[in-house]
Amino acid sequence: MNKNRFGNSDLQVSQLGLGCMGMSEFYGNYNDTESIEVIHHAIERGINFFDTADMYGLGKNEILVGKALKGKRNEVVLATKFGVMRGDDGSFPGVNGKPEYVKQACENSLQRLGVDYIDLYYQHRVDPNTPIEETVGAMSELVKEGKVRYLGLSEASAEVIRRASKIHPVTAVQTEYSLWSNDLEAVIPVCRELDIAMVPYSPLGRGFLSGKFRSTEDFEAGDFRRYNPRFRGENFSKNLEILEKVEEFAKSKSVTPSQIALSWVLSKGNDMFPIPGTKRIKYLDENIEATTISLEKDEIDQLDQLYKLVSGNRY
Protein backbone atom coordinates (compact mmCIF):
# COMPACT_ATOMS: atom_id res chain seq x y z
CA MET A 1 0.00 0.00 0.00
CA ASN A 2 1.19 3.49 -0.82
CA LYS A 3 2.27 5.70 2.06
CA ASN A 4 2.22 9.49 2.03
CA ARG A 5 3.75 12.20 4.17
CA PHE A 6 1.39 12.91 7.02
CA GLY A 7 0.79 16.65 7.25
CA ASN A 8 3.60 18.67 8.78
CA SER A 9 5.15 15.61 10.46
CA ASP A 10 7.93 13.25 9.45
CA LEU A 11 5.50 10.30 9.48
CA GLN A 12 4.81 8.18 6.41
CA VAL A 13 1.23 6.93 6.73
CA SER A 14 -0.68 4.37 4.66
CA GLN A 15 -3.41 5.66 2.33
CA LEU A 16 -5.96 3.85 4.46
CA GLY A 17 -5.94 3.58 8.21
CA LEU A 18 -8.10 1.38 10.41
CA GLY A 19 -10.72 2.82 12.74
CA CYS A 20 -11.01 0.51 15.74
CA MET A 21 -14.05 1.96 17.57
CA GLY A 22 -16.56 -0.66 16.40
CA MET A 23 -14.37 -3.45 17.77
CA SER A 24 -15.46 -2.56 21.30
CA GLU A 25 -18.73 -0.60 21.18
CA PHE A 26 -21.51 1.09 19.21
CA TYR A 27 -21.87 -1.35 16.28
CA GLY A 28 -23.48 -4.40 17.82
CA ASN A 29 -21.62 -7.58 18.80
CA TYR A 30 -17.85 -7.78 18.86
CA ASN A 31 -15.18 -10.41 19.40
CA ASP A 32 -11.72 -9.45 20.68
CA THR A 33 -9.98 -12.44 19.12
CA GLU A 34 -11.39 -11.69 15.66
CA SER A 35 -10.61 -7.99 16.05
CA ILE A 36 -6.97 -8.70 16.87
CA GLU A 37 -6.78 -10.90 13.77
CA VAL A 38 -8.14 -8.00 11.71
CA ILE A 39 -5.51 -5.62 13.10
CA HIS A 40 -2.72 -8.11 12.40
CA HIS A 41 -4.03 -8.69 8.87
CA ALA A 42 -4.15 -4.93 8.30
CA ILE A 43 -0.46 -4.66 9.18
CA GLU A 44 0.34 -7.54 6.83
CA ARG A 45 -1.50 -5.74 4.02
CA GLY A 46 0.46 -2.51 4.55
CA ILE A 47 -1.81 -0.49 6.83
CA ASN A 48 0.22 1.24 9.52
CA PHE A 49 -2.29 3.78 10.92
CA PHE A 50 -4.59 2.73 13.76
CA ASP A 51 -7.17 4.94 15.44
CA THR A 52 -8.78 4.52 18.86
CA ALA A 53 -9.97 6.75 21.73
CA ASP A 54 -10.20 6.56 25.50
CA MET A 55 -14.02 6.66 25.41
CA TYR A 56 -14.51 3.68 23.07
CA GLY A 57 -15.81 0.86 25.21
CA LEU A 58 -14.93 2.90 28.31
CA GLY A 59 -11.23 2.23 27.72
CA LYS A 60 -11.61 -1.35 26.51
CA ASN A 61 -10.77 -0.42 22.93
CA GLU A 62 -7.41 1.06 23.89
CA ILE A 63 -6.62 -2.11 25.85
CA LEU A 64 -7.59 -4.22 22.82
CA VAL A 65 -5.51 -2.15 20.38
CA GLY A 66 -2.56 -2.17 22.75
CA LYS A 67 -2.75 -5.95 23.03
CA ALA A 68 -2.96 -6.34 19.24
CA LEU A 69 0.05 -4.09 18.67
CA LYS A 70 2.27 -5.70 21.29
CA GLY A 71 5.58 -6.48 19.64
CA LYS A 72 4.61 -4.40 16.59
CA ARG A 73 4.82 -0.92 18.09
CA ASN A 74 7.60 0.29 15.81
CA GLU A 75 5.66 -0.76 12.69
CA VAL A 76 2.65 1.49 13.29
CA VAL A 77 1.39 5.02 13.75
CA LEU A 78 -0.87 4.92 16.81
CA ALA A 79 -3.56 7.56 17.30
CA THR A 80 -5.90 8.01 20.24
CA LYS A 81 -8.16 10.73 21.55
CA PHE A 82 -9.31 12.35 24.79
CA GLY A 83 -11.97 14.79 25.83
CA VAL A 84 -15.33 13.00 25.59
CA MET A 85 -16.07 11.91 29.15
CA ARG A 86 -17.90 8.69 29.98
CA GLY A 87 -19.62 7.63 33.16
CA ASP A 88 -19.13 4.12 34.55
CA ASP A 89 -22.68 3.40 33.36
CA GLY A 90 -21.75 4.36 29.79
CA SER A 91 -23.32 7.83 30.00
CA PHE A 92 -21.84 10.91 28.33
CA PRO A 93 -21.54 13.67 30.97
CA GLY A 94 -19.78 16.12 28.65
CA VAL A 95 -16.53 17.28 27.08
CA ASN A 96 -13.42 18.24 29.05
CA GLY A 97 -10.44 20.15 27.67
CA LYS A 98 -9.04 21.45 30.96
CA PRO A 99 -5.24 21.20 31.16
CA GLU A 100 -5.21 18.95 34.22
CA TYR A 101 -7.69 16.60 32.54
CA VAL A 102 -5.58 16.46 29.37
CA LYS A 103 -2.54 15.25 31.28
CA GLN A 104 -4.40 12.67 33.34
CA ALA A 105 -6.24 11.36 30.27
CA CYS A 106 -2.92 10.88 28.49
CA GLU A 107 -1.43 8.96 31.41
CA ASN A 108 -4.48 6.70 31.47
CA SER A 109 -4.30 6.07 27.72
CA LEU A 110 -0.59 5.24 27.85
CA GLN A 111 -1.29 2.72 30.58
CA ARG A 112 -4.20 1.07 28.77
CA LEU A 113 -2.34 0.95 25.46
CA GLY A 114 0.79 -0.38 27.16
CA VAL A 115 3.07 2.05 25.31
CA ASP A 116 5.59 4.75 26.22
CA TYR A 117 4.32 7.30 23.72
CA ILE A 118 1.38 8.10 21.42
CA ASP A 119 2.15 9.09 17.84
CA LEU A 120 -0.93 11.27 17.33
CA TYR A 121 -2.98 12.61 20.23
CA TYR A 122 -6.30 14.25 19.37
CA GLN A 123 -8.72 16.38 21.29
CA HIS A 124 -11.84 14.34 20.50
CA ARG A 125 -14.26 17.25 20.69
CA VAL A 126 -13.61 20.92 21.41
CA ASP A 127 -14.56 21.95 24.94
CA PRO A 128 -16.72 25.09 24.64
CA ASN A 129 -15.91 26.02 28.24
CA THR A 130 -12.11 25.87 27.94
CA PRO A 131 -10.14 28.10 25.55
CA ILE A 132 -8.45 25.98 22.88
CA GLU A 133 -5.20 27.76 23.72
CA GLU A 134 -5.25 26.23 27.21
CA THR A 135 -6.06 22.74 25.97
CA VAL A 136 -3.41 22.74 23.24
CA GLY A 137 -0.94 24.31 25.64
CA ALA A 138 -1.32 21.27 27.90
CA MET A 139 -1.10 18.94 24.89
CA SER A 140 2.13 20.63 23.78
CA GLU A 141 3.66 19.91 27.19
CA LEU A 142 3.02 16.21 26.56
CA VAL A 143 5.09 16.56 23.38
CA LYS A 144 7.94 18.15 25.33
CA GLU A 145 7.77 15.29 27.84
CA GLY A 146 8.03 12.72 25.03
CA LYS A 147 4.64 11.15 25.78
CA VAL A 148 3.11 12.38 22.53
CA ARG A 149 4.73 12.99 19.14
CA TYR A 150 2.11 15.00 17.24
CA LEU A 151 -1.16 16.76 17.99
CA GLY A 152 -4.55 16.54 16.34
CA LEU A 153 -8.07 17.96 16.62
CA SER A 154 -11.37 16.26 15.86
CA GLU A 155 -14.50 18.06 14.61
CA ALA A 156 -12.87 21.47 15.00
CA SER A 157 -13.80 24.62 13.10
CA ALA A 158 -11.39 26.57 10.89
CA GLU A 159 -11.15 29.30 13.54
CA VAL A 160 -10.28 26.81 16.29
CA ILE A 161 -7.67 25.13 14.07
CA ARG A 162 -5.99 28.48 13.42
CA ARG A 163 -5.97 29.43 17.10
CA ALA A 164 -4.66 26.04 18.13
CA SER A 165 -1.89 26.15 15.51
CA LYS A 166 -0.55 29.38 16.97
CA ILE A 167 0.15 27.51 20.23
CA HIS A 168 1.58 24.32 18.70
CA PRO A 169 1.54 22.82 15.19
CA VAL A 170 -1.60 20.79 14.53
CA THR A 171 -0.63 17.77 12.43
CA ALA A 172 -4.05 16.22 11.73
CA VAL A 173 -7.73 17.11 11.77
CA GLN A 174 -10.28 14.30 11.98
CA THR A 175 -13.86 14.87 10.83
CA GLU A 176 -16.64 12.70 9.44
CA TYR A 177 -16.43 12.78 5.65
CA SER A 178 -18.13 10.64 3.03
CA LEU A 179 -20.54 10.83 0.14
CA TRP A 180 -23.24 11.73 2.66
CA SER A 181 -21.24 13.91 5.09
CA ASN A 182 -19.35 16.89 3.68
CA ASP A 183 -18.46 18.59 6.98
CA LEU A 184 -14.71 18.28 6.36
CA GLU A 185 -14.94 20.56 3.35
CA ALA A 186 -15.38 23.58 5.62
CA VAL A 187 -11.81 23.13 6.93
CA ILE A 188 -9.98 21.79 3.86
CA PRO A 189 -8.62 25.26 2.93
CA VAL A 190 -7.12 25.97 6.36
CA CYS A 191 -5.73 22.43 6.62
CA ARG A 192 -3.96 22.76 3.28
CA GLU A 193 -2.71 26.24 4.15
CA LEU A 194 -1.17 24.94 7.39
CA ASP A 195 -0.02 21.58 5.95
CA ILE A 196 -2.39 19.56 8.15
CA ALA A 197 -3.34 15.99 7.27
CA MET A 198 -7.06 15.26 7.06
CA VAL A 199 -8.44 12.06 8.55
CA PRO A 200 -11.97 11.29 7.33
CA TYR A 201 -13.77 8.98 9.75
CA SER A 202 -16.88 7.01 8.80
CA PRO A 203 -15.98 7.27 5.09
CA LEU A 204 -18.57 4.57 4.39
CA GLY A 205 -21.36 6.56 6.02
CA ARG A 206 -21.33 4.34 9.13
CA GLY A 207 -21.76 1.34 6.86
CA PHE A 208 -24.73 2.77 4.96
CA LEU A 209 -22.74 3.16 1.73
CA SER A 210 -21.78 -0.51 1.78
CA GLY A 211 -25.31 -1.43 0.72
CA LYS A 212 -25.55 -4.08 3.41
CA PHE A 213 -28.37 -2.38 5.31
CA ARG A 214 -31.84 -1.70 3.92
CA SER A 215 -33.80 -0.98 7.10
CA THR A 216 -33.28 -0.25 10.78
CA GLU A 217 -34.11 -3.87 11.55
CA ASP A 218 -30.93 -4.97 9.77
CA PHE A 219 -28.87 -3.70 12.72
CA GLU A 220 -28.06 -5.87 15.71
CA ALA A 221 -29.50 -5.07 19.13
CA GLY A 222 -27.30 -2.47 20.80
CA ASP A 223 -26.19 -0.94 17.49
CA PHE A 224 -26.42 2.83 17.91
CA ARG A 225 -27.47 3.24 14.26
CA ARG A 226 -30.93 2.06 15.30
CA TYR A 227 -31.32 5.50 16.92
CA ASN A 228 -29.29 7.61 14.48
CA PRO A 229 -31.52 10.12 12.59
CA ARG A 230 -30.29 9.13 9.13
CA PHE A 231 -31.14 5.47 9.73
CA ARG A 232 -34.67 6.00 10.99
CA GLY A 233 -38.08 6.09 9.31
CA GLU A 234 -38.56 8.37 6.35
CA ASN A 235 -34.93 9.54 6.44
CA PHE A 236 -33.70 6.00 5.83
CA SER A 237 -36.11 5.56 2.91
CA LYS A 238 -35.00 8.83 1.30
CA ASN A 239 -31.31 8.07 1.81
CA LEU A 240 -31.65 4.79 -0.05
CA GLU A 241 -31.80 6.93 -3.21
CA ILE A 242 -28.17 7.90 -2.55
CA LEU A 243 -27.22 4.26 -2.11
CA GLU A 244 -28.94 3.29 -5.36
CA LYS A 245 -26.86 5.82 -7.28
CA VAL A 246 -23.63 4.58 -5.64
CA GLU A 247 -24.62 1.03 -6.54
CA GLU A 248 -25.09 2.08 -10.17
CA PHE A 249 -21.55 3.49 -10.22
CA ALA A 250 -20.22 0.33 -8.61
CA LYS A 251 -21.94 -1.93 -11.10
CA SER A 252 -20.56 0.06 -14.04
CA LYS A 253 -17.03 -0.51 -12.75
CA SER A 254 -17.55 -4.07 -11.47
CA VAL A 255 -16.65 -3.05 -7.92
CA THR A 256 -18.60 -2.73 -4.67
CA PRO A 257 -20.45 0.35 -3.36
CA SER A 258 -17.97 0.53 -0.45
CA GLN A 259 -15.09 0.71 -2.88
CA ILE A 260 -16.73 3.54 -4.82
CA ALA A 261 -17.31 5.46 -1.57
CA LEU A 262 -13.70 5.02 -0.45
CA SER A 263 -12.18 5.77 -3.84
CA TRP A 264 -14.19 9.02 -3.88
CA VAL A 265 -12.65 10.10 -0.56
CA LEU A 266 -9.18 9.12 -1.72
CA SER A 267 -9.68 11.10 -4.94
CA LYS A 268 -9.78 14.29 -2.89
CA GLY A 269 -6.01 14.31 -2.39
CA ASN A 270 -2.94 12.61 -0.97
CA ASP A 271 -3.45 14.55 2.26
CA MET A 272 -6.62 12.50 2.97
CA PHE A 273 -6.13 9.44 5.19
CA PRO A 274 -9.55 7.79 5.67
CA ILE A 275 -9.97 5.32 8.54
CA PRO A 276 -12.84 2.96 7.68
CA GLY A 277 -13.61 0.61 10.53
CA THR A 278 -14.41 -3.07 10.27
CA LYS A 279 -14.48 -6.22 12.40
CA ARG A 280 -14.05 -8.62 9.48
CA ILE A 281 -10.98 -9.50 7.38
CA LYS A 282 -13.25 -9.89 4.35
CA TYR A 283 -14.35 -6.26 4.49
CA LEU A 284 -10.85 -5.06 5.34
CA ASP A 285 -9.55 -6.62 2.12
CA GLU A 286 -12.46 -5.10 0.20
CA ASN A 287 -11.59 -1.66 1.55
CA ILE A 288 -7.91 -2.05 0.71
CA GLU A 289 -8.74 -2.88 -2.91
CA ALA A 290 -10.49 0.51 -3.16
CA THR A 291 -7.02 2.12 -3.25
CA THR A 292 -6.54 0.68 -6.75
CA ILE A 293 -9.69 2.26 -8.23
CA SER A 294 -9.45 5.47 -10.26
CA LEU A 295 -12.40 7.77 -10.81
CA GLU A 296 -12.66 10.17 -13.73
CA LYS A 297 -13.29 13.85 -13.02
CA ASP A 298 -16.86 13.71 -14.33
CA GLU A 299 -17.54 10.70 -12.10
CA ILE A 300 -16.19 12.54 -9.07
CA ASP A 301 -18.33 15.57 -9.96
CA GLN A 302 -21.44 13.39 -10.16
CA LEU A 303 -20.69 11.73 -6.84
CA ASP A 304 -20.12 15.16 -5.27
CA GLN A 305 -23.77 15.96 -5.90
CA LEU A 306 -25.12 13.09 -3.80
CA TYR A 307 -24.79 15.05 -0.57
CA LYS A 308 -27.68 17.24 -1.67
CA LEU A 309 -29.96 14.20 -1.32
CA VAL A 310 -29.12 13.48 2.32
CA SER A 311 -32.03 13.34 4.76
CA GLY A 312 -31.45 13.64 8.52
CA ASN A 313 -28.76 15.02 10.81
CA ARG A 314 -25.47 13.23 11.50
CA TYR A 315 -26.32 12.88 15.20
Report the biggest beta sheet as strand number plus sense, adding barrel if it closes.
7 strands, parallel
CATH architecture of one domain: Alpha-Beta Barrel
Do you know the CATH topology of one domain? Answer: TIM Barrel
Share in β-strands: 5-15%
Q: Estimate percent helicity.
A: 25-40%
Structural class: alpha/beta
Write down how many β-strands occur, each being a DSSP E stretch of 2 or more residues: 11
Q: Please give the order of strands in the largest beta sheet.
A: 3-4-5-8-9-10-11
Report mean pLDDT, rounded to a whole number: 94
Describe the global form.
Answer: globular
SSE ordering: EEEHEHEEEHEHEHEHEHHHH
- Give the distance, in angstroms, between the N- and C-terminal Cα atoms: 33 Å
Low-confidence stretches: none
Computed Rg: 19 Å
Q: How many H/I helices?
A: 10
Going by CATH, the homologous superfamily of one domain would be NADP-dependent oxidoreductase domain
Briefly, what CATH class of one domain?
A: Alpha Beta
Provide a quick synopsis of the model:
This protein is an alpha/beta fold and 315 residues long.
Notable traits:
315 residues, alpha/beta, TIM Barrel, seven-stranded parallel β-sheet, two-stranded antiparallel sheet, 10 helices, 15% strand
